Amino acid sequence: MIAGAFHRAMALSVSGKIGLALMLFWLLIALFGPMLAPYPVGAFVAYDVFDGSSAAHWLGSDYLGRDVLSRLLSGARYTVGLAAAAAMLASAAGTALALTAAVGGPKIDEPLSRFMDMLISIPSKIFSLVLVAAFGSSLPLLLLIAAITYVPGNYRIARALAVNLAQMDYVQVAKTRGEGRFHIATAEILPNMIHPLLADFGLRFVFIVLLLSGLSFLGLGVQPPDADLGSLVRENISGLGEGALAIIAPAVAIATLTVGVNLLIDALPGRSKGR
Amino acid sequence: MTAMAHVEVNNLTVTARNAAGETFPIVSGIDFALKRGEVLALIGESGSGKTTIALTLLGHARPGATIAAGSIRVGDADLRALDAKGLAHLRGNRIAYIAQSAAAAFNPSRTIMDQVVEPALVHGLMSRATAEAKAVELFGALALPFPDTIGARYPHQLSGGQLQRLMAAMALITDPELVILDEPTTALDVTTQIEVLRAFKAVVLERGATAIYVSHDLAVVAQMADQIVVLNQGRIREAGAAAQILHSPADDYTRTLMAAARPAIRPTPRQADLPAAPLLEIRGVTAGYGRIGKDGQPRVPVLRDINLTIERGATLGVIGESGSGKSTIARLVAGLLPPASGQVLLDGEPLPPGLAGRSREQFRRVQLVFQNADTALNPAHSVGRILERPLAFYHGLTGNAAHMRVLELMDLIRLPRNLIDRNVGGLSGGQKQRVNLARALAADPQLILCDEVTSALDTVVGAAILDLMAELRRELGIATMFISHDISTVRAICDDILVLYSGTMVETGPRAAFQTSPFHPYTDLLIGSVPEMRAGWLEESHAGRAPPPVGAASDHPDLCRFLPRCAVRVDGLCNITPPPRHPLAKGSRILCHHGDEGLIPS
Questions:
Q1: Do B358 and A172 touch (CB under 8 A)?
Q2: Using a CB-CB distance cutoff of 8 angstroms, which residues of chain A are in contact with residue B379?
Q3: How many other C-beta atoms lie within 10 A of the C-beta of residue A272?
Q4: Phi-psi bin for A237: left (phi > 0), alpha (psi -120 to 50), beta?
Q5: Considering its fold, how many domains does chain A have in total?
Q6: How far apart are alpha carbons B520 and B524 in whole angstroms?
Q7: Which of A177, A188, A275 lies closest to B393 in CB terms?
């Protein structure tokens, strides 16, 4: 199993390998980051704010004199975990509904699609503000908000793919074999739309990282003293003028994470590669 | 000879690079020469390199391929010595190209005239007014309807055969020194092909153009070519004058091609132990697409009043041109399209009209095999998985038992056992079609609906599939509905034949009745349009000639649908009253006013 995975990783293109390395790196940070952090998350440990790199504080200090490295290592798990979980939830729900619509005929397709159009018309920020105001900010709520916001987008793409695939001859053959809708959706249609859906997943992942960062920026996301990568950028925004490491480091972290995920997904062998 | 040759290709080699970065030749050692005004045919199966060679005469190699060695000379131009600018000056000017699919080669958002005169304008050869006048003259020469106004139309308003001729006009507008025709009639119905061939031949002869005609069809080539080059796997197998290749081929491969082009008769004796009751019966079926109106007719009617029966173990051939509704019959029996009225009976019991309500047993007994194995097999599945599914679904076979049965099936269709784990993308066209067939056989059906199963295949591969089907029928006693546009194949393998025109049955009868004239005028047109493998057939054939004039048609809905194209139509009868269905002496029933004496004897 591991040998097989390694073999497949070796077959990836150079950009794919870079993407895989970046993603594995962030996965490890998310898992073990808090253990590696040299200082507690909320501790004021430096005398200067927006300090540069030093032996004691590798990535300097933030606007309150906390250790940026420790905050980064602890914050990564919120961004990676929350965004990945929300993106998976959104993609799974969107794709499942899309397949239902594609094999269910117009009687299911129409109401479902109109409902999704309605969801898509609600501005995501306002939607989040209302929910956070009503229920108070918590991690499960943030997960749910991010997932619900991105279901309609995934649904639209997955439905467009599935409706096209449902017209293919092999689906017609399966119908005349007497196959049920569940088999047609999962065995005949789904395997042929995985690759574009993965690309879509990468896109949603990036959007969700941005949405969570935006919510944190408004103070509605992950609550202090904890912080996700977006919050780290937000709270240190005043250091932007002096080019402080405290703002560059989390920004680079978000960039490498999202770029890594997308590089890997684009390099996955798809049908276009003629496999 | 060499000194006076107009086009000369010497020792041409084209190489391609595979995914692993290795370079290998796709065509090699190609030599030929032709004089001004001659037509040379490149003939071979798909993958033989014929299009690759044709493209090198434009100085072009497809992405991934390079012209590695040899010389290509057209007139005084050495194509290998020219740079991109020099080649651009030749292309569409002194050398013109006519592609296989004219429908895809025209820009749908511009008028025909704009596109036809474009080569002349791009190369600055004449003024727009002169070019348009010349285009209209060419439209006339190509026997296009309304030559003065057809240029103002858009591509979607014209038929495939018309577009193919317009593309010839586009190629000829610059009076090129060399015209390359790449399978220009392959995508057309035979009845259209004959018209297009006539038009091509007329302009090629009249203008003395030098041409290279690429085709897989020897009979078509026989009408056009002075010289024939037979290709196989990138090498020349045989080259020579057309008459010599057609009448005394020296190479074994050429003989195989010739044999495959003439389908051998494969009559199958019906198995004696089968009961005589019909297996499938279609009674008075009308079907189509869209909502069913008050008169019981669907909005877009496709089939009208279809009646047919298939005996156990028998083969019924359904033929007609594209759009005649032949695939719709298969969809109807399979349950994909419920009929608007009428009944489908399997073994005497009515089948539920749509998919809903059919039992698994009813599904199992009727299997549909689609034309295009590329789209009929799920690209995400392996051969093994595709064949195991019906076994598990209908017979509850799983695990080792299913695996053994899959291997048995693969032996039955002569597919190497080691392909079992291969994804269908890695199979050749013929292998895919075999898997497609094996999936239907896995259900252990009583009736297989074969929709144009050999049309997308090369003749040699298609002939092998037909042999296989005949053998399976003999051994397994499965009844077949064989849907095809190719009357010679149908006449060779089917017990009974049904000719469909525009959704109505125009002639039905046993095979024997289709071996002798007279035929229904449409059947006659179909048979007469199949090219024969001899020079001069095109001039002699009476098919596709202009029909006699008739007055305006009455608005009776059941009027003969073939009226606008019928060669023996009678003014005052055919355009006023609907035709009766009546038997002919030879044993078939036709839908026509004429009896035995009024039809064309041939």
A1: no
A2: 192, 271
A3: 7
A4: alpha
A5: 1
A6: 6
A7: A177
Q: How many other CB atoms are there within 10 angstroms of residue B529's CB atom?
A: 20
By the CB < 8 Å criterion, does A168 face chain B?
A: yes
Domain assignment of residue A165, yes or no? yes
- Are A264 and A16 spatial neighbours (Cβ–Cβ below 8 Å)? yes
Contacts by residues A117-124 (CB-CB < 8 Å, ≥ 24 positions apart): A117/A152, A119/A148, A119/A151, A119/A152, A120/A152, A120/A153, A120/A156, A124/A149, A124/A211
Residue A176 sits in a domain whose CATH number is 1.10.3720.10
CB contact under 8 A, A177 and B376: no
Question: ipTM of this complex > 0.85?
Answer: no
CA distance B492 to B264: 6
A139 inside domain: yes
Partner-chain contact A173 B390, CB within 8 Å:
no
Torsion over CA: B195, B199, B200, B201 (sign): positive
Q: What is the DSSP string of B175-207?
A: --SEEEEESTTTTS-HHHHHHHHHHHHHHHHHH
Q: Nearest residue of A to residue B368 by CA position?
A: A173
pTM: 0.79
- Asked if B393 and B359 touch (Cβ cutoff 8 Å), the reply is no
Distance from CA of A19 to the nearest CA of B (A): 22
- Could you give the CA distance from residue B416 to residue B411 in angstroms, rounded to a whole number? 7
Mean pLDDT by runs of 10 across the 602 residues of chain B is: 74 83 85 89 85 88 84 86 87 87 84 91 90 90 85 86 87 88 83 85 81 87 89 88 87 84 65 72 89 79 90 90 87 90 89 88 92 87 91 90 90 86 83 90 91 80 83 84 88 89 91 86 88 81 76 81 85 86 88 82 61
CA distance linking residue A230 with residue A221, whole number of Å: 9
B379 → closest Cβ in A173, A179, A271? A271
Position B264 scores a pLDDT of 67
Cis before B269? omega within 30: no
A15 located within any domain: no
Peptide bond between residue A225 and the one before it cis (omega within 30 degrees of 0): yes
What distance, in Å, lies between the first and last C-alpha atoms of chain B? 43
Q: What is the DSSP letter of B275?
A: -
Taking Cα atoms as reference points, which of B337, B335, B246, B247 lies closest to residue B288? B337
User: Who contacts B359 (Cβ-Cβ below 8 Å, separation ≥6)?
Assistant: none
Domain hosting A111: range is 28-242
Q: Which of B75, B78, B80, B61 is nearest to B23 (CA)?
A: B61
In contact, B465 and B430? CB cutoff 8 Å:
yes
In 3D, which of B140, B126, B149, B146 has the Cα closest to residue B168? B140
pLDDT tens for residues A76-90? 888 888 888 999 999
Residue A258 lies in a domain: no
Phi, psi of B213 (to 5 degrees): -110, 115
**Beta carbons within 8 Å of B265's beta carbon, 6+ residues apart:** B492, B493
Tokens of A22: 């970046």
Residue listed under structure tokens 């927006």: A50
Residue ranges of the alpha helices (H) in B144-298? 160-172, 190-207, 218-224, 242-247, 252-261
Angle made by CA atoms B23, B25, B29, in degrees to the nearest 5: 145
Closest Cβ–Cβ partner in A173, A271, A274 for B368: A173
Pairing of strands B178-182, B95-98: parallel
- Give pLDDT tens digits for B140-165: 888 888 888 888 999 888 888 888 88
- The tokens for A223 are 């609550």
